[in-house]
Design goal:
Layout (H helix, E strand, L loop, with lengths): L1 H38 L4 H21 L2 H20 L5 H24 L4 H21 L1
Helix pairs in contact: 1-2, 2-3, 2-4, 3-4, 4-5
């Protein structure tokens, strides 16, 4: 029986080490993608990878039970894309890139909000943003 307990304990330790290693990897990736985006703000590949790294980090924090950190990792790319869509200085390409990115960030945030409900006002804001995206998508087709 004690061998089994040791195996479980070792497995748990390996899981923690893996999560820590993954967290560090995604934090470094985010930093590198941000450096790329400063130089090339319309790099769709870097933008997608930046968002994906934040979403992976949110998953890691969710597994650790760090719900506020997980939420923050979903909010950062979403709010950044929302800002880029609304305050684009008339740059239509930038606005389109941001709107497409919001189609990725908002569903992840809505899913998280369903599992971890925010205040009513925050949920209303998310629903209004979802409606805005849906209207934008209908205009594109």
């Amino acid at each position: 029986m004690s061998l089994s307990n040791n195996e479980i304990s070792l497995e748990h330790t390996n899981d923690k080490e893996h999560l820590f290693s993954s967290e560090r990897y995604h934090r470094e990736a985010i930093y590198n993608f941000e450096k790329t985006l400063i130089q090339k703000p319309k790099s769709i590949g870097a933008l997608c990878d930046w968002i994906a790294s934040y979403h992976e980090l949110a998953t890691i924090y969710g597994k650790q039970g760090a719900i506020e950190k997980a939420q923050k990792c979903l909010l950062i790319p979403h709010q950044s894309m929302l800002h880029m869509a609304l305050y684009n200085g008339g740059d239509i390409e930038q606005k389109e890139i941001a709107m497409r990115a919001i189609n990725v960030t908002l569903p992840a945030l809505m899913s998280f909000a369903n599992a971890h409900p925010p205040c009513k006002n925050c949920m209303k804001n998310l629903e209004a943003q979802l409606e805005m995206i849906q209207k934008h998508s209908r205009m594109d087709h």
